[in-house]
Each structure stands twice: as C-alpha cells, then as structure tokens.
Design brief:
The chain is α+β, with helices and mostly antiparallel strands. It is 17% helix and 35% strand. The chain has a single domain, classed as Jelly Rolls (Sandwich). It is globular, with a radius of gyration of 22 Å. The chain starts with 12 loop residues before the first helix and ends with a strand. The structure holds 2,5-dihydroxybenzoic acid. 2,5-dihydroxybenzoic acid binds next to strand 3 and strand 10.
C-alpha cells in the first residue's frame, strides 16, 4: 500500500504564494484526483429521459422558436452529474432531441464532430449527406460523419423527432470543434446506398473494375433490417441478449471513428450483466418495456425513452416485454486509444 499523499494545508502560505506567482502547482495533493487507484472516478451519473416529457417540451419549442432562429431545434440531454445545460450526456457522448415541423428545413453545414440520428417519431423527414437523400423512418440510424455536408428536410404532415448523438464533447475538449455553412443541397435522384449498393451484406460494389473503398459507404441503416436480424438470431438461440454491431459494410469497422452503435434485443426476464467495462453508454429504447438498475439506481423505461450509464457501471435488467434498443457507446474510440477493458464481476 502506498502512503497517504501530502495536502495543500501542509505547505506554508509563503511557499504557496510563491508557487502561484511562478505559475506552478504541486502535483501530489491532486495526484489521486486524476489517477485514482484501480478504477476511474466518473463525473457522469446515469441519466434518464422520458420521451413523453421531452416530446411535449420540444413541441413547445416548435411554437416558441422558428427553425430559422434555432438552426437546429434541439433540446440537449444533460448528464445529471454535470447539471442541466451541460452538452455532455456522458464523458464522450452528446445527446439531443431534434424537432422538424412539416415543410421546415435545417440548413446545410458540416462540422468536425460526427453525428448519428435515431429516428423516434414521424414520417417524411430526411437528411441529405453529400447529395445523398436519406429517408428517416422510425428506428433508422442515419449517419452524418465529421466533415460531410448535411441538411435536414421534412415532406410529411406531422412533426418529426429524432435523437442526435455526436462525439462533440471530445472535439470541444480537443479545441477542435467548428462548423461551416453552405446552401441547401440538391439531392441526387436515386435511392440511398442501403437500398442500392449495400442492399445485401457480403457484396461490395465494383465500379470500372475497382472495388469500392469509400470512407463512409453507407449512411442509413434501416431499422427494419436490424429488427429482422435480431429476431432471426433470437429464434435460433436461447441467449437472453442478442446484439449486432453497426459496421461499415466494406471493411467491418465501426460506422464512425469514435462512436459505436449496437442493436440489441433483450428477452423477457431478469438479466444481470456479468461484466463492467470502460465504455460509457446511452441506451435508446425502440420497443419494449422494463427496468434497468445502473449502479443501484432503478430506471423504469418503455419505448422511445433514453438512459445513460457511465464507465464501469454495473447493470441489471428486468425485462417485462421483449425489448429492442440501440446502444450508443464509445468503444471504437477506446479501442483506437488502446485501453478498452472489460472485467468480470
Ligand atoms: O443536426 O447537424 O443536436 O450540428 C447538434 C449539432 C444536431 C445537426 C445537434 C448539430 C446537429
């Protein structure tokens, strides 16, 4: 066991004044804050957002603030550990809920952070990424990777609402976050690549004799496909948890550089996760009903709700109805940094 480290109080005032003037500080009183023993000490606390509640407030924002005055009409889901107004849902993940009303558009821009949307409600919404028009249907995962021009539009007749997930906190931390604007894009007149080039997994398009190798070949992952795969897996397995990772169909890598997305089915009953891991997580319920205990805190959720879990959380589920969810996490980032870790409990 290492000895207890010295504190600031143990140092003479005259010395502390001189340190301050010289622009230096002793490490030892703050060493354990940044390097605690054995496990990190997360600031993040598990959060829960009831969809009905946020939806009502978002629809009011639709009355109070025209989209032109908002650019993106979003309510930000703030980590309870950092307080309302924090633009972090976890250490690395930003979450927001965005509303677009019929006929509205959100102007084209691109930024250094990457974004993904999970569509929660409404028909007729779409995102255009580099000229590719991506329909937004309930449960779809739609990517707008860092550096790619994107705008949103709405051809339906009822509000469209989706969940935005961005790796914004990282880019802010790195002082690398900025955006640029351009004119609304004119979409190409063809279906998105999930309906065309990548309709079948295991097949990669070849153009003029060359295998395609695009950084972001597929930017819309329709929920219908994810659900079908999970149901088929479930029919052939007695496992209580079935999961599929969303990957780049050309190389099997995560769909975005830092954020990972996993489609999960949780079957009715009690499920105790027997591992803790270094990832931070957000869970968005597509369909189902149940309770989850995150580090002893019980969360009761149903379809369209969202909750978060900080790094190394202990998680237990009690599933009332078979559930489908999309798990947003930062495993790709942690693997790139070489420290992703799981521990059995
Ligand atoms: O739709 O491009 O929630 O740029 C935050 C920043 C959404 C977007 C957000 C954004 C967007």
């Amino acid at each position: 066991m290492s000895p207890k480290l010295g504190t600031i109080d143990e140092l003479p005032k005259e010395y502390l004044d001189k340190l301050e003037e010289a622009g230096v500080a002793p490490l030892w009183p703050m060493m354990r804050n940044v390097l605690p023993h054995n496990l990190p000490k997360p600031v993040t606390k598990s959060g829960f957002w009831n969809y009905g509640k946020v939806r009502e407030l978002l629809l009011r924002a639709g009355e109070l603030t025209p989209v032109e005055k908002a650019e993106r009409r979003v309510l930000v889901l703030s980590d309870p550990g950092r307080g309302v107004g924090s633009m972090q849902a976890t250490s690395s993940i930003y979450l927001g809920m965005q509303l677009l009303l019929p006929g509205e558009t959100a102007p084209a821009h691109r930024h250094t952070p990457s974004a993904a949307r999970i569509i929660i409600e409404g028909e007729g919404g779409y995102t255009v990424v580099n000229g590719e028009k991506l329909p937004m249907e309930e449960g779809d995962l739609v990517l707008t990777p860092g550096g790619e021009w994107h705008d949103h539009g709405h051809e339906g007749d009822k509000p469209v609402i989706w969940l935005d997930a961005l790796d914004l906190p990282l880019f802010v931390y790195l002082e690398g976050s900025y955006s640029e604007e351009t004119e609304l894009q004119i979409p190409k007149n063809k279906p998105d690549t999930s309906q065309l080039e990548y309709l079948s997994s295991g097949l990669v398009p070849v153009t003029a004799g060359k295998r395609s190798s695009i950084k972001y070949p597929m930017m819309r992952f329709p929920w219908a496909k994810t659900k079908e795969v999970l149901e088929k897996l479930s029919n052939n397995s007695s496992d209580k948890i079935l999961s599929v990772d969303y990957v780049n169909p050309e190389n099997g890598q995560s769909v975005l550089p830092t954020m990972g997305f996993t489609g999960t089915m949780l079957k009715k009953g009690k499920i105790k996760i027997d591992k803790i891991s270094s990832i931070s997580s957000a869970f968005h319920i597509i369909k189902g009903k149940g309770e989850t205990t995150v580090n002893g805190k019980k969360i009761t959720w149903s379809a369209k709700d969202t909750f978060t879990a900080p790094v190394f959380s202990q998680i237990e589920h009690s599933i009332e109805e078979n559930t489908f969810l999309i798990h947003i996490h930062d495993k790709p980032l942690q693997e790139k940094l070489g420290y992703f870790e799981e521990r059995s409990i």
